[in-house]
Amino acid sequence: MGWSKQFKLMVSFSVVLMFLPVNSGIASANDKSLIPMGHSIGIKMDLSGVFLTNDVLLGKDEWLKAGDLIGQVDGAIISNVENFEDALTRVGNKEDISVLLTRNGETLTVRSDNEALKQLLPFLKDSTEGTGTLTYVDPEKKTYGALGHQIIDSSFKSPPSFKDGTIHLSEIEQIRKSSPGNPGYKISTIVKDKGTLGKIHKNGVYGIFGSWNNSYKEVLSEPLQIMHQRDVKVGKAEIFTTVKGTEVESFSIEITNVEQDQFHFKLTDSKLIETTGGILQGMSGSPVIQDGKFAGAVTHMFIDEPEKGAALFLETMRKGEN
């Protein structure tokens, strides 16, 4: 699943669960506490240039490919879509325009005319945005972690190369319920008067991480001790997440299986199931609490059984900060 400009489909849940890499030698985190969050966040990323989102035929034989990075047009450096439009205006009706681009690390030059290049405009992208769930804030380091898995841009089918990124508090306006075979999702908008919650410094396999500006203090819990993964067990637990407005709520779950690199659970809270039909796209990153300790973060759902999902150990997720 890709991201949409309306924040409808940002977070991807695999049809089969994605098993995350196992890391040996994880240090004990029992002496460390983090604030579990659960807030819905809007995510904005400025890409490191202008990229094509689709394969486009340029002239008779020249195909440009999705993921191509446009570097120059007629010698003018292209940093954003506006630069591209300005370059076309400047060259006027010139029929032989050189375009410098990068594809799979290789620099290429193609030539075309103004009219053909204008056809690229609907397929150019210099930013991406979506929605997810804030997992934790470290009050000592003033950092945060969210999502529990890497952002993959649907246009490029790879992690987007970005130069700047921010997270923002978002408000849930509607829920499209999950049903077997059809993952549901949240429809949300950024709460503008709350400003920026933090900067994105890293988009890694265990989530997005960055600096927290300490601007939002409404939380369900004070800092909780991180639960060692060997202590996570089958049994009752809870998740913190947002399904209405900006309010974070606690919902009951049952951990059903604990593996070496993740644990499985099912939703048991009738209110949550009635509201959502199961786990939703956008819930990725929701904190999991067991026995008063911070155990992990929701990362995936079972498509055919949306009340069931998987979570990443918080100890493992924290390694993504480094």
UniProtKB/TrEMBL annotation:
Q: Key word tRNA-binding present in the record?
A: no
Record keyword Hydrolase present: yes
Among the GO molecular function terms of this UniProt record, one is: hydrolase activity
Task: Check the record and name the InterPro entries matching this protein.
Answer: PDZ_sf (IPR036034), Peptidase_S55 (IPR008763)
Q: What is the official name of this protein in its record?
A: SpoIVB peptidase
Report the residue ranges that make up the Peptidase S55 domain in this protein: 101-322
The record's listing under SUPFAM superfamilies reads: PDZ domain-like
Q: Which domain of life is it from?
A: Bacteria
Ranked from the top, the taxonomy reads: Bacteria, Bacillati, Bacillota, Bacilli, Bacillales
Quote the gene name from the UniProt entry: spoIVB
Q: Which Pfam families match?
A: Peptidase_S55
For this protein, what is the EC number?
3.4.21.116
Q: Which UniProt keywords apply?
A: Hydrolase
Under PROSITE patterns, the record lists: SPOIVB
